[in-house]
């Protein structure tokens, strides 16, 4: 069932960067140091030059640890944040410069599912109201009956019971709410779903229910997913391709099978080894030095150098470029490029 | 003699019109230096078990019946003054969120010294020295400087290391860790777990690890309890529970993990949700979600029965086991 369609790009990110300024306004940038006043702007470099293609029909997973910029990427693609530099193309057309009005027809095509189903549903709307609202908003001409039919059809498809429609979000469990949030995203017949940690807040048995629902929706509706998560076992199951992010830069992009069978970047290796497996009877992971550095005013060179066992002088000055590997993976690492990792 | 012996411990919560049973007659033992995992989903009663062992259940909850014998003393019915000698001193608890556990307005040093003063007669210099030794044990770089820092100046992984150091300050016999790494990233989680395991092994400290992550339990513990709706439903050696789970819920929990299904295929999900404590089904609490449920399951509560090394509370397992071999024992 993999790659039923030839690779046709749906979403393209071109050298996308996002900075958040910490010092807003002139006065906050004034510093007094060593007897002198100076101007200094500090900013959080959340995403740095990410170039990425989401092909039609695939489930592209973005993984990484907290602060690596994965949620920022999702929000940039969804148009909830404006990129500092770089371009976002959807179906061949540039979308990051569009006005709100021009963006509206696109919003119908791409929908977002958020992590916390307690926060993403309006507590004062019944389930019926919450599900009808996006249909009405995007299809002004539809009659009341058509809207209700559409909602009923989606509710059936995702297993939202018809008896739930008069009830409010607080009456449901986390798994049921996430199911409703998915139904809400599907009511406008999107072709592209951006899911930001959709199952992280749920229990194991409920995670399986929601993940199955998303797999079914992908198959029946031919959806394309951009799936943001920190859970690598979910990635292995759900994703067709994986992007590993570290401090806002891409470390490695590969097909899921390739990535899990032969991880190449030192960070990817460490990340995969850190996932506790059922067959392990003791912790056995690759230890990294230190902790993730702050993304405020990043140093030059490879973002991973401070924790990498293979870092050398070149890594501290030169940022590695993404390079194609023989098995199709793309890796940004000087040590891999120079063959210093051994193996 | 075991370090900790829990017998038919029940915890109830008094609500406005009714009383709900959050923990229903759980019994287990823990040997000296033994590592025990408690797994289950949210609402299963894992954390309540941890709190009950520390005698930290607060209003409107209360320990209804049963006993917790720790180092030969029943601590479930100990008055608060007596409990203060045990808590933090002989047994310590590590919580999920390190930012909530540490006091934000006290330095790391003040918090560590305070803990030592509460239980030992020491000079300030001695207390500081012990604190530095413990911080070094958890691989905190330059511990002397850390003592003067506040929690917000440290990263999440560093804070959790400091909490482990505080838990170990008075050389306790038992550490209860309630989801100690859930708030941390995987690479940091792996470091913390390895550290915790090494410290428990080298100091012969008993560990009760409460988690929802079966992979963590597999790496860290020798024995495991599986909880569902306030009851222990399966108990035994960790390897056996993971490799050959008996209870349909344990099987479902393990099979639901994405690793257990080939990529891209539908996961084996458990239908439905855990029942709410106010709306418990009669009979086995898992029966509404269980594919093997019979009339017996829907009416009578199964008892824990021992089969070899594992104990299981399930009618279906009992039926299978009592078939050809007739092996039964209490």
In a few lines, what is going on in this structure?
The complex is a heterodimer of chains A (343) and B (330). Chain A has 343 residues and is of the alpha/beta class.
Proportion in helices of chain A: 25-40%
- The H-and-E topology of chain A, N to C, reads as EHEEEEHEEHEHHHEHEHEEHHHEEH
User: What is the CATH architecture assignment of the largest domain in chain A?
Assistant: 3-Layer(aba) Sandwich
Largest sheet of chain A: 8 strands, mixed
Tell me the CATH topology of the largest domain in chain A.
Rossmann fold
Largest interface: A-B, 45 and 44 residues
Radius of gyration of chain A: 22 Å
The arrangement of helices and strands of chain B along the chain is EEEHEEHEHHHHHEHEHEEHHHEEH
Instruction: Give the total of beta strands of chain B.
Output: 12
Strand order of the largest sheet of chain B: 6-7-8-3-9-10-12-11
Q: Unreliable segments of chain B (pLDDT under 50, ≥5 consecutive)?
A: 326-330
Shape of chain A: globular
> How would you sum up the global shape of chain B?
globular
* Category from helices, strands and their pairing of chain A: alpha/beta
Task: Describe this protein's structure.
The complex is a heterodimer of chains A (about 350) and B (about 325). With about 350 residues, chain A is α/β, with parallel strands linked by helices. Helix content of chain A is about 30%, strand content about 25%. Chain A has 2 domains: about 10-245, P-loop containing nucleotide triphosphate hydrolases (Rossmann fold, 3-Layer(aba) Sandwich); about 250-343, no CATH class. In chain A, strands 8-9-10-5-11-12-14-13 form an 8-stranded mixed sheet, with helices on both faces. Chain A has a 4-stranded antiparallel sheet with strand order 4-1-6-7, covered by helices on one side. In chain A, strands 2-3 form a two-stranded antiparallel sheet. The longest helix of chain A has 18 residues, at about 205-220. Chain B is of the alpha/beta class and about 325 residues long. Chain B has an 8-stranded mixed sheet with strand order 6-7-8-3-9-10-12-11, sandwiched between helices. Chain B has a 4-stranded antiparallel sheet with strand order 2-1-4-5, with helices on one face. In chain B, strand 1 and strand 2 (about 20-30) form a beta hairpin. The chains are: A alpha/beta (about 350), B alpha/beta (about 325). The interface of A and B includes residues 216 and 230 of A.
């Amino acid at each position: 069932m993999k790659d039923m369609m030839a690779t046709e790009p749906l979403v393209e990110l071109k050298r996308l960067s996002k900075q958040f300024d910490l010092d807003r306004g002139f006065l906050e940038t004034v510093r007094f140091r060593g007897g002198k006043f100076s101007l200094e702007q500090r900013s959080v470099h959340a995403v740095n030059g990410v170039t990425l293609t989401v092909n039609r029909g695939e489930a592209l997973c973005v993984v990484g640890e907290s602060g690596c910029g994965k949620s920022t990427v999702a929000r940039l693609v969804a148009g909830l944040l404006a990129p500092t530099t770089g371009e976002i193309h959807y179906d061949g057309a540039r979308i990051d410069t569009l006005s709100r009005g021009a963006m509206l027809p696109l919003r119908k095509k791409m929908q977002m599912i958020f992590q916390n189903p307690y926060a993403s549903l309006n507590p004062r709307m019944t389930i019926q109201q919450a599900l009808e609202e996006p249909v009405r908003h995007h299809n002004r001409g539809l009659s009341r009956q058509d809207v209700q039919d559409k909602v009923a059809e989606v509710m059936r498809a995702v297993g939202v019971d018809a008896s739930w429609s008069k009830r409010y979000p607080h009456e449901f469990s986390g798994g049921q709410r996430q199911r409703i949030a998915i139904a809400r995203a599907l009511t406008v017949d999107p072709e592209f779903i951006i899911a930001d940690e959709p199952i992280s807040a749920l229990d194991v048995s409920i995670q399986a229910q929601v993940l199955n629902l998303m797999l079914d929706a992908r198959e029946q509706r031919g959806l394309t997913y951009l799936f943001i998560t920190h859970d690598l076992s979910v990635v292995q199951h759900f994703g067709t391709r994986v992007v590993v992010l570290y401090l806002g830069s891409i470390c490695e992009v590969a097909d899921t099978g390739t990535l899990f069978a032969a991880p190449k970047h030192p960070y990817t290796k460490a990340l995969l080894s850190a996932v506790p497996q059922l067959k392990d009877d003791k912790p056995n992971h690759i230890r990294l030095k230190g902790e993730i550095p702050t993304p405020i005013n990043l140093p030059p060179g490879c973002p991973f150098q401070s924790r990498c066992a293979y870092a050398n002088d070149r890594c501290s000055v030169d940022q590695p470029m993404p390079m194609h590997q023989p098995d199709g993976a793309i890796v940004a690492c000087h040590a891999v490029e120079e063959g210093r990792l051994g193996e | 003699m075991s370090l900790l012996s829990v017998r038919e411990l029940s915890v109830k919560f008094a609500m406005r019109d009714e009383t709900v049973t959050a923990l229903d007659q759980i019994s287990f033992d823990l040997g000296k230096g033994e590592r025990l995992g408690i797994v289950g989903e949210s609402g299963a009663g894992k954390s309540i078990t941890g709190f009950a062992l520390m005698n930290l259940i607060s209003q409107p909850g209360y320990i209804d019946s049963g006993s917790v014998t720790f180092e030969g003393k029943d601590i479930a019915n100990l008055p608060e003054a007596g409990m203060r000698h045990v808590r933090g001193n002989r047994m310590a608890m590590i919580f999920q969120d390190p930012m909530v556990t540490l006091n934000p307005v006290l330095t790391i040093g003040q918090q560590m010294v305070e803990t030592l003063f509460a239980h030992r007669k020491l000079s300030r210099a001695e207390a500081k020295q012990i604190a530095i030794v413990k911080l070094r044990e958890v691989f905190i770089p330059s511990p002397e400087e850390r003592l003067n820092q506040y929690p917000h100046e440290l990263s999440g992984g560093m804070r959790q290391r400091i909490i482990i150091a505080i838990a170990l300050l008075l050389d306790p016999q038992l550490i209860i860790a309630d989801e100690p790494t859930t708030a941390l990233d995987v690479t940091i989680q792996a470091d913390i777990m390895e550290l915790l395991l090494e410290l428990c092994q080298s100091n012969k400290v008993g560990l009760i690890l409460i988690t929802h992550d079966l992979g963590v339990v597999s790496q860290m513990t020798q024995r495991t309890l599986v909880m569902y709706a306030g009851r222990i439903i399966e108990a035994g050696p960790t390897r056996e529970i993971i490799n050959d789970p008996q209870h349909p819920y344990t099987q479902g929990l393990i099979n639901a993990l994405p690793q257990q299904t080939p990529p891209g295929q539908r996961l084996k999900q458990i239908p439905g949700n855990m029942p709410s404590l106010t709306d418990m089904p009669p009979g086995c609490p898992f029966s509404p979600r269980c594919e093997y449920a019979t009339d017996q399951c829907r009416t009578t509560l199964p008892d824990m029965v021992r089969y070899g090394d594992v104990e299981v509370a399930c009618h279906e397992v009992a039926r299978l086991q009592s078939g050809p071999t007739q092996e039964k024992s209490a």
